[in-house]
Amino acid sequence: MSDAAFWILQLLNALQYSMLLFLLSIGLTVIFGLLHFMNLAHGALYMMGAYIGISITSATGSFWAAFFLAPLAVTAIGAVLYFTLIRRLRNAGPMNQVLVTFGLIFVFLDIVRLGWGDIALGLDAPTALQGTTKFLSVSYPTYRFFIIGLGLVVMATLMTIVSRTQIGAMIRASVENDDMAAAMGINVGRLFFAVFCVGCALAGLAGVVAAPVFSATTGMGISILIPTLIVVVIGGLGSLQGAVVGSLIVGSIETIGAAVLPGVASILIYVLLAVILVVRPAGLIPARV
Amino acid sequence: MLELKNIESGYGETRVIHGLDLTVEAGSVHALLGRNGVGKSTTLKTIIGQLSLTAGQIRFDGTDTSDLNPYDIARLGVAYVPETRDIFGALSVRENLELAGRLAPAEGASWDVDRVLDFFPNLADRMSNGGHELSGGEQQMLAIGRALMMEPRILLLDEPTEGLAPIIIQQIFTKLNQLKTEGMTILLVEQNFNFAAGLADMISLVGRGQIVWQGTADALKTDTEAHEKWLGV
């Protein structure tokens, strides 16, 4: 393989992984930014998205049914969590939130074990997206291009909503100062719940689109949680642009690091995390100006 | 128009307001004066629902707002300009204004962005600037402009002169006086006695979480004892 082809391939892999991280980190970061809530169970919602997607596909025979319904199902799970636990824990302090949502990870782990078993489950990419597509002399799986495209579309949509619409202005205002936002007539609680639901839906979406690439395993929620948390911290808690930049950085370092410096790749993102925490503790693009 | 009956409130376990009674008449400017820490700002935060009542009742235009959420109180037409101004730094000046105007009726609104810019021409050049790029005076003008965009029936102003240069204070005074002439109801918290005395129809002195003296600015000027006791340093 030529040098150029190698790098193009690595970049595409990095981009595809970054998009999955983005779909996950966006939910985590807005939930933290708006609700001041650290939801460690966010990775579990991603896992539920994958498993529910696999079941919907096998029941209906259609990946696209899963693509649309699995995020809805995950949103419903998120809404139950919101009303039973998260809303009550809002003022309980970060340590209680982390303990409860850490516990939830194991609850979901066992739910998956009971419902789907311990074996990795695969999911076929939809027929239209099977095979490879040539890009700059590199053949690359069409389905992975689809993930990259989907990530870019979600990114552009969210950016537009947040920076150009009134709902977006309401969200930015509420993240910055929820008391003042409420004093201007914004029902901050309802706004936060809506945003929380969008975050859950995107975690479910990430799960169902990841399943054809990585297979669904009981450990997938935990293994994605660490890089997602690092994205959120590097980018800046509560910051959409931060999630974009953080995903691209972490996705690139993990993917390209593994190809170029396999020995130290696994510690590179932690080094980066440590450096950012020292130099810019609020993250690269903090939500609060 | 606004009636506080024997209210008690504070922060967590710490009670700051101990049975405060206050009535603000429609169309009047009412100033709350007093030393630091006697509960003036706390009173405003309780009116807007940011702090909850532990006793007493608040009525606004006949509606009992004691148990309402802050956003419901805001929608009744209670607009609040905090001491810290609390301009949204992540939003442009225009977005700050439009966000506040979002609940105003589309037809027949008396304030829109253009009128706010007529009122505070300094803001006109800053419309696309981020809220965090404004000077203190511009922030105060935007904070008041934002409150006006809410089509307020009462304006609650917490120390609008704090930290501002005398020339800006003079500008703010002129503008508030103009609002007063137009019949706006204002509840003003101030440390600057002359500023408050120049605007207010009625002055209430606050001491230890209660109203301890009430009267006109002229009456307060001649009542040296009250002046010494509740305002002197």
Number of structural units classed as domains of chain A: 1
Structural category of chain B is: alpha/beta
- Within CATH, the superfamily of the domain at 2-77 and 153-230 in chain B carries the name P-loop containing nucleotide triphosphate hydrolases
Overall body shape of chain A: globular
What this model shows, in words?
- The complex is a heterodimer of chains A (289) and B (233).
- With 289 residues, chain A is mainly α.
- Chain A has one domain.
- In chain A, 76% of the residues lie in helices and 3% in strands.
- Chain A has eleven helices and two strands, in the order ααααββααααααα.
- A two-stranded antiparallel sheet of chain A has the order 1-2.
- In chain A, strand 1 (132-135) and strand 2 (138-141) form a beta hairpin.
- In chain A, helix 2 (42-60) crosses helix 8, helix 9 crosses helix 10 (240-260) and helix 10 packs antiparallel against helix 11 (265-279).
- The termini of chain A are far apart.
- The mean pLDDT of chain A is 91.
- Chain B has 233 residues and is an alpha/beta fold.
- Chain B has a domain at 2-77 and 153-230: Rossmann fold (3-Layer(aba) Sandwich).
- Helices cover 34% and strands 26% of the residues of chain B.
- Chain B has nine helices and ten strands.
- Chain B has a six-stranded mixed beta sheet with strand order 6-7-8-3-9-10, sandwiched between helices. A four-stranded antiparallel beta sheet of chain B has the order 2-1-4-5, covered by helices on one side.
- In chain B, helix 3 packs parallel to helix 5 (136-149) and helix 4 crosses helix 5 (136-149).
- The mean pLDDT of chain B is 93.
